[in-house]
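Please decode residue identities from the backbone states below.
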């Protein structure tokens, strides 16, 4: 194809993504919305006691990016839903119609520049809210919300996925955006969430909110972080919320020069705030430790004076798409995450904390039986991991892992060559089933076939592989996070969970 022809296409606004690996193969933008009633079941039987909906969310570029090359976590939010009813599974996916999506649709091109850098946007953006709603989906207080940490949530219809609009909890949220990693306590029906850089780019303000079962802000605590950095996730225990601050920092002056939103500062330490769940800012205890990083938290626990969190910790930056402050790439060996317990002793006057690696399996995207978030004690954790038996050079985190935190046992299911799994979501067998008694719902990337399966795995027998496989004729581009919502929780607008242990 001649360059003159390409220039002509460009002049009329043809959609053509840059010819770079980010937009090729399994990661190529899908840009397709679909409905499929009664998916094929190619293996086993879908358990008839699984009734409800799996929601998942990830980025899918609506238009080629304004700057040509960017990081893979950017792109418009695409929400996927799998509705389970008496052994049948129906599939649907829809873009979230954010303000950004609608503005770009109007102009038929990408308008937003470098990731979260407002100084690189097209002038047509003006004061348009920049959020993509591409990171997570949560069902709470009768609302289905699509989340991205640089904007407020967008509310969706839980049956049609139609976008209802941007949502600020009836004016209750005063931060300029909200985290994409709230943690839901399914016994109290409270949503614990937060915002960092809560008053805008480069601010050190942090706010922690408890949203009650009626959808109203019930409690909030404002405090200041040690620096304006990324706080992608936090952890909740039965009595506390825990905010680790890692040295992935935002420099507004760098943004004004067109630079990245975050850079890694490996010379800085780790700072952790342990916050009483319903307390005040002056009750926060601060701890300090060696340089480290964790993208995601599994859960936390408070027992007596000891508060602990289990997180996927690395010595250096595991979000390698953000570079070092001097522009050099991060050291991959330092960014290798392992499930690690940090323990803080509130009875001690020391600012030190204890670090204990729990597993030697490389892992990320940790999940639990969601009914045990905020319960303190919990036994079962589920992760994306690298199969320890894999002999493939450079094998990624493409296998499904189960960690029994009581016995220390680890089980892994490897989906095979040319396949990889996405983050698992746990679905309990019944509302009162014991911790870990249920299923893992796992999207499996069938790379060679350019499509996905949804695998249903017995959460107590992960190494056996799926009990059923639901076939999709299409690819689900890598989703980040999501949740299982039992049918009765959709209908009752609350979770009626009874914890047995
Ligand atoms: Fe995340």
């Amino acid at each position: 194809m001649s360059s003159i022809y390409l220039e002509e296409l460009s002049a009329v606004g043809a959609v053509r993504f840059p010819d770079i690996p980010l937009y090729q193969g399994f990661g190529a933008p899908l840009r397709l919305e679909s409905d499929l009633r009664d998916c094929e079941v190619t293996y086993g039987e879908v358990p008839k006691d699984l009734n409800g909906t799996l929601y998942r969310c990830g980025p899918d570029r609506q238009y080629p990016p304004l700057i040509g090359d960017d990081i893979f976590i950017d792109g418009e939010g695409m929400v996927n839903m799998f509705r389970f009813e008496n052994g049948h599974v129906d599939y649907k996916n829809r873009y979230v119609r954010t303000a950004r999506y609608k503005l770009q649709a109007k102009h038929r091109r990408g308008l937003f520049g470098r990731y979260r850098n407002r100084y690189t946007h097209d002038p047509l953006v003006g004061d348009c809210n920049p959020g993509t709603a591409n990171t997570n989906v949560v069902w709470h207080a009768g609302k289905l919300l699509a989340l991205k940490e640089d904007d407020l949530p967008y509310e969706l219809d839980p049956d049609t996925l139609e976008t209802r609009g941007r949502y600020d909890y009836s004016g209750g949220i005063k931060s300029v955006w909200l985290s994409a990693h709230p943690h839901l306590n399914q016994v109290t029906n409270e949503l614990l969430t937060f915002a960092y850089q809560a008053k805008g780019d480069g601010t050190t303000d942090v706010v922690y909110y408890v949203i009650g079962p009626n959808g109203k802000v019930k409690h909030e605590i404002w405090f200041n972080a040690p620096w304006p950095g990324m706080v992608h996730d936090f952890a909740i225990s039965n009595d506390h919320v825990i905010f680790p601050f890692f040295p992935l920092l935002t420099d507004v002056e760098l943004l004004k020069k067109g630079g990245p939103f975050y850079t890694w500062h490996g010379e800085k330490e780790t700072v952790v705030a342990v916050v009483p769940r319903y307390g005040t800012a002056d009750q926060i205890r601060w701890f300090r430790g060696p340089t480290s990083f964790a993208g995601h938290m599994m859960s936390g626990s408070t027992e007596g004076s000891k508060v602990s969190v289990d997180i996927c910790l690395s010595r250096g930056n595991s979000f390698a798409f953000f570079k070092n402050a001097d522009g050099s790439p991060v050291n991959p060996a330092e960014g290798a995450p392992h499930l690690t317990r940090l323990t803080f002793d509130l009875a001690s006057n020391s600012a030190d904390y204890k670090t204990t690696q729990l597993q030697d399996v490389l892992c990320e995207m940790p999940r639990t039986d969601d009914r045990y978030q905020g319960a303190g004690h919990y036994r079962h954790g589920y992760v994306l991991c690298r199969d320890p038996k894999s002999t493939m050079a450079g094998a990624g985190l493409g296998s499904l892992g189960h960690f029994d935190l009581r016995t220390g046992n680890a089980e892994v299911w490897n989906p095979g060559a040319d396949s990889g799994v996405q983050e698992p979501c746990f679905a309990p067998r019944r509302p009162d089933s014991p911790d870990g008694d249920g299923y893992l719902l796992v999207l499996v990337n069938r790379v060679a076939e350019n499509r996905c399966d949804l695998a249903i795995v017995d959460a107590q027998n992960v190494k056996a592989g799926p009990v059923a496989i639901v076939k999709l004729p299409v690819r689900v581009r890598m989703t980040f996070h999501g949740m299982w919502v039992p049918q009765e929780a959709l209908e009752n607008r609350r979770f009626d969970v009874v914890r047995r242990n």
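Observation: The chain has four helices and 32 strands.
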